[in-house]
Amino acid sequence: MRWKVSALVLVGVLVLGPGAHGEERQSTLRAGAGAQLWTLGEDTCRQDGDVFECTSPTLFGDFFLEARWRARPGLSVGLNLGYGVSGGTPEVVNSNGSGSRVETRLLRVGVEPRLHLDAGSVADLFLGLELGFLSVRETLVEFEGGRESEAGFASQPGPLVGASLGVNFVLWRGLELELGTRAAFVNLSVDRIPELAPTRPATEFGPQIWLGGYTLVGWRFGL
After folding, report:
1. Residue 110 burial (10 A CB sphere; 0-12, 13-18, 19+)
2. Residues 6 or more apart from 145 whose CB is under 8 A from it?
3. All structural domains of the chain
4. Is the separation of the CB atoms in 41 and 27 below 8 Å?
5. Using CA atoms, how far apart are residues 110 and 210, in angstroms rounded to an integer?
6. Dist CA 105 CA 95 (whole Å)
7. pLDDT tens across 62-72, in order?
8. What is the pTM of this model?
9. What is the C-alpha to C-alpha distance for residues 130 and 6, in angstroms, rounded to an integer?
10. How far, in Å, CA of 97 to CA of 189, rounded?
11. Average pLDDT rounded to a whole number, residues 26-45
């Protein structure tokens, strides 16, 4: 009989875990906004006519919104949506003043469960795993005589799998500041590189590692 009671107690501890009673079990929802800087681990290359050039590193500024639900002190799940911009390419100007440039944008959406290693403290260290989707869109802009027009665009979507490490600080009541780093594998490989315009292929990103650092400010509500 004793071993049965002991087994039931052990199962209860594993299922309920720490903080399974009282206020510690209260679930919370945090809404936040942040900014992130991505750098690509490898060169990105594009062809312009007979010229083939590679750029390293490629940088993206990513602005994002996040909603995070914490059902248990040590576990949370977040949904984030990001929109980013890149420096693109320098303007190519002809002798008559006309020219072109490529503007680059990204859209990112992901789900990120986290394990909180020091839940309840002022500085909450966490590990996260992100599964999502990322799409890079390039737009060819031509200009002449002070006028600009969109000459073509191309999008390259692909899956994203990443990991994060960071710390969350409680500043005041529900106000929180989060600092973190991310490493993500993004696969933007395609069978054929799309064209921005005839004889003007888009950038070849391919599969590679993206590295990022970010900061977020959020407000946590009790549910």
Report:
1. buried
2. 97, 98
3. 29-222 (2.40.160.20)
4. no
5. 15
6. 29
7. 999 999 999 89
8. 0.78
9. 37
10. 36
11. 85
